[in-house]
Amino acid sequence: MTVRVLYVAGSGRSGSTLLARLLDQVDGVFAPGELRYVWQRGLIEDRFCSCGQRFGACPFWTKTIDQAFGGRDGVDPHAMSRAQQSTTRVRHLPRALLSTRRPAGARRLGSYAAAVAGLYRAIQDVSGADVIVDSSKLPTYGHLLASIPGVEVAVVHLVRDPRAAAHSWLRAKAQPDRGGDGVMQQQSASKSAVLWDTWNAAALRLFAGHPRRLLLRYEDVVDDPRHAVARVLDLIGHGGAPAGFVDDRTVTLTSGHSVAGNPDRLSSGSTRIRLDDEWMTALDARRRLWVTALTAPLLRRFDYPLRVGRASGRPSSA
pLDDT (tens digit, 0 to 9) for every residue of the chain, 318 residues total? Predict the structure, then answer.
């Protein structure tokens, strides 16, 4: 059985959780979050699923793990997490770039690739969906998925203005899925800019010859979310239509079963979609200029202005 996966690639703080949740409202599409974290945050740390229950208590994930591995004892999540990290970190990117024509990930990783394939098949079976949306973002992980037999991957390369992403990384945002106090990971504007360059350039390179790929900007998603969802559905050949919309900017989001992602995945109900442009006034001039300088070549590639201001233009075709 072939598992159909829509992979959302790009860098952190790009709006992948929002896009995945919008797609999750469509019949036949299921968005279980950032699946590369299922081993660590799900099976090891037992964080909260977006349904409101701990991973280990969630009926959906319990049934999925039972079907994939015969229960929690049928897989070593520590070994799986180590195997995933051994191929998807920044330091392994050159090897992935050199193997774009002949992906070797599945052959080298053996049992890990088999476990991933089994997990995705079980997710598809238990959810009853035609397409699984994996918002893991790392291009190297998406590249690995595409190399696994029985997994058919379409790619949405989601991009956000790097100055907005840098501001998001700097903000302290609560992360309640651990069940206590804590905030999401933070990092400097410099590191954010370098990773934005690295992962977006990698996505362009790794998926350059992919037959089904779409470049989509976060700013265009929030400007016209219905149209963005329709474009993605067209990419995957899905016959459905955007769902859950009350009007052009308001959507009713259900809780779903997202295992990892932005804490917004834990909320549900009527949601007003708007552009998060706080960075335009809150990010200081020095950081704005520095991030702009570090990301200038790709800013032009993605139709973002060099001068700080509201992003303009439509996304380039991929």
Answer: 899 999 999 999 999 999 999 999 999 999 999 999 999 999 999 999 999 999 999 999 999 999 999 999 999 999 999 999 888 877 767 777 776 554 444 455 789 999 999 999 999 999 999 999 999 999 999 999 999 999 999 999 999 999 999 999 999 888 888 887 778 889 999 999 999 999 999 999 999 989 999 999 999 999 999 999 999 999 999 999 999 999 999 999 999 999 999 999 999 999 999 999 999 999 999 999 999 999 999 999 999 999 875 444 444 333
pTM above 0.70, yes or no: yes
- Please choose, from the candidates 250, 248, 305, the residue with its C-alpha nearest in 3D space to the C-alpha of residue 280: 305
Check if the beta carbon of residue 287 is closer than 8 Å to that of residue 189. Answer: yes
How is residue 205 annotated by DSSP? H
Domains and CATH numbers, the chain: 3-301 (3.40.50)
Beta strands (DSSP E) in the chain are 3-10, 29-33, 131-137, 151-159, 213-217, 245-247, 250-253, 269-272
